[in-house]
Amino acid sequence: MDTNPDQTTGHDDGASSDRSAHGRGATGGENRGEGSFRSGFVAVVGRPNVGKSTLVNQILGTKVTITSRRPNTTRRSVRGVLHRPGVQVVLVDTPGLHRPRSALGRRLNEQVVEALYDLDVVVAMLDATASLGPGDRLVLERAAASCASGSNRERDLRRLLVVVNKVDRATSAEVLAQLSAAHEVLEGVKNVGTLDVSGMNDEVLRHGVSHEDGLEREQDRGVEYFAVSARSGRGVDELLEAVLERLPEGPRYFPDDMVSDVPEAFWVAELVREQLLARVRDELPHSIACRVSEWEWPRVRVEIVVERESQKGIVIGRGGEVLKAVGTAVREQLPPGAFVELYVCVEKHWQENPEAIERFGY
Ligand SMILES: Nc1nc2c(ncn2[C@@H]2O[C@H](COP(=O)(O)OP(=O)(O)O)[C@@H](O)[C@H]2O)c(=O)[nH]1
Ligand SMILES: [Mg+2]
């Protein structure tokens, strides 16, 4: 942990802290003649609460993004970097795609769309314990569309991996049903491949294309399906293997010691929010925002913002017990000596205020 709150976690030279869409074209990201170095951007997308952040942490083997059983926990795309010999995988954890009910919700969806632009691999995640709904369908369609476009990527559905998560809590029949429901949705997605017709003769164009003409049908276009438990890690190695296989030759986008692009101040505020989400009920999670207002390492002051006066007491707890527990749990995850000061304030309707949303970094 450094004294500069804008530094990214696990990254201390600060040389290539670009803020472009995915860090492409970054100064530190040129290929230094390593021959066959492979790398790529992998987005994890899905409805809220399917386990995207849990998967990203599981693959990285370290926590770079907070999780909770509340929907919309992730409020900004987080990039986590997996370093393997000769390979670099940039995992993009995204907010859940959902029907927005506030300016904040619309901002979260925007981030998903941004993250789906120009990727090497898309992991579309479903929850084995809930039946496939319209939200999941939208996710699958968007993910397929993303693999069928992109400025300089190959248009190829092999870049799409469908993952059914939480198999530890579902029966194999439920897992199978979910896999085949996803398959059916993708079968129904029309024109995903934006077929290149330049090489086809008139005959083919008049009569359409059949499988025998060499053009593959949806199920043969290479979408792969996985069943995993992001929490226990079951099936995750196989998934990672498939991701690695799909990475093109590419540059080292991030320095070797960088594990995420999250600035430290944002991370401390997120840890506070994570602890609050685990302790409060009902609608409150949506109303909570956290922001570091003072950073004099090891003393960090975090502002907890709620939307109504009545919510203040819940966050503070009887005799301050909630805040105390939150502070302790956060300190345990920071380097020794950290001193976290928490205070609560009210900002009415911040979820509808674009300026506030930006101030909190969402
Ligand atoms: N049983 C079970 N729970 C999971 C699994 N993966 C995630 N969860 C839980 O599902 C909830 C949402 O997870 P999170 O990663 O925050 O979901 P996200 O909104 O998609 O990022 C949390 O309570 C997780 O602990 C899993 O494989 N099995
Ligand atoms: Mg998340």
Structure overview:
With 362 residues, the protein is α/β, with parallel strands linked by helices. It has 2 domains: 13-246, P-loop containing nucleotide triphosphate hydrolases (Rossmann fold, 3-Layer(aba) Sandwich); 264-359, GMP Synthetase, Chain A, domain 3 (2-Layer Sandwich). Helices cover 31% and strands 18% of the residues. It contains 11 helices and 9 strands. It has helices at 52-60, 103-115, 134-147, 172-188, 202-207, 236-245, 264-277, 284-287, 309-316, 321-331, 354-359; strands spanning 38-46, 78-84, 87-93, 121-127, 160-165, 224-227, 289-296, 299-306, 339-346. The strands form 2 sheets. It has a 6-stranded mixed beta sheet with strand order 2-3-1-4-5-6, sandwiched between helices. The chain has a 3-stranded mixed beta sheet with strand order 7-8-9. Strand 2 (78-84) and strand 3 (87-93) form a beta hairpin. Helix 7 (264-277) packs across helix 10. It is globular. The two termini are 22 Å apart. The structure holds guanosine-5'-diphosphate and magnesium ion. Magnesium ion is lined by residues 52-53, 73-74, 93. Residues 46, 48-54, 67-69, 73-74, 96, 165-166, 168-169, 229-231 line the site of guanosine-5'-diphosphate.
